[in-house]
UniProtKB/TrEMBL annotation:
Belongs to the 4-toluene sulfonate uptake permease (TSUP) (TC 2.A.102) family. GO terms for cellular component: plasma membrane. Keywords: Cell membrane, Membrane, Transmembrane, Transmembrane helix, Transport. It is found in: Cell membrane. It is a multi-pass membrane protein. The keyword Zinc-finger does not apply. This is Probable membrane transporter protein. The keyword Coiled coil does not apply. Pfam families: TauE. The chain crosses the membrane at residues 45-68, 75-94, 100-122, 134-155, 167-185, 197-214, 226-244. It comes from the Bacteria. It comes from Billgrantia montanilacus.
Length: 249
């Protein structure tokens, strides 16, 4: 795999694009990379490849902002549940037909895109009440383990809490770091993370960071509203494609 020039170029381009999106709108890199890579190398390999870029590009977001202690004190039941159930999700990934999980990823990506395009308010759909934190955390970890995506209900739950903007961004960074690290360890235990995939994932950090720098420069010249609409429309198309491909077998 590492010696395939076409694969190397494809992975580099995917993370350059995904990093650019994150640089412009501050999020979206795991979702973009998952959508594009799953369509080319399959879901398990796509999940393995996003590990290092996702962890490294979100560590800064998770640590900087001044709210880390408050986030951990308030959200530890949610974060703990999300980390624990990642192992269950990866166990499902290792045992079921990956085609159906690719379809599930397609549904999640399409739903995420539609919610952004039409302001559906994801926060209204998440579990509420006394046990909302562990319930949403458990579902987030399970879905992360099966598909690599921590967006729903994880991000929706965090948005529903009414956190200050900077605290919300830092909390999302913490969520992505802890769930992705758990994903890496659990995939290693299930022998879904080979040495060559790990090395390729580390190599993908470089184009991801370059893309983020490019995106931060483009942000000053582009309309963020227009870019976000194009980004979400592209995700909707990719999500639909993954779903249709899984149904077609």
């Amino acid at each position: 795999m590492l010696l395939d020039p076409l694969l190397l170029v494809s992975v580099a381009l995917v993370f350059l694009v995904a990093g650019t999106v994150k640089g412009v709108i501050g999020m979206g890199m795991p979702t973009v990379s998952l959508a594009l890579l799953t369509a080319t190398v399959g879901l398990p390999s796509a999940m393995a490849l996003l590990l290092a870029p996702t962890i490294i590009t979100n560590i800064w977001q998770a640590l900087v902002g001044g709210y880390l202690q408050q986030i951990l004190r308030r959200l530890w039941p949610f974060l703990l549940a999300s980390v624990v159930t990642v192992w269950l999700g990866v166990g499902v990934l290792a045992r079921v037909d990956v085609r159906w999980l690719s379809g599930l990823l397609g549904v999640l990506i399409a739903f995420y895109a539609l919610s952004g395009l039409f302001n559906l308010g994801l926060g209204k759909l998440v579990s509420r009440g006394r046990h909302a934190a562990p319930v949403n955390g458990a579902l987030t970890g399970l879905i992360t383990g099966m598909t690599g995506s921590s967006v729903f209900p994880g991000v929706a739950y965090l948005q529903s809490l009414g956190l200050p903007r900077d605290m919300l961004i830092q909390a999302m960074g913490v969520l992505f770091v802890v769930t992705t690290m758990a994903l890496g360890f659990s995939m290693g235990e299930q022998r879904l993370l080979s040495v060559e995939l790990a090395l390729l994932s580390l190599g993908a950090v470089i184009p991801a960071i370059l893309g983020m720098q490019l995106g931060q420069r483009l942000r000053q010249r582009l309309s963020e509203v227009t870019f976000r609409r194009v980004f979400l429309t592209g995700l909707l198309v990719m999500g639909g494609y993954l779903l249709l491909r899984s149904l077609a077998g």
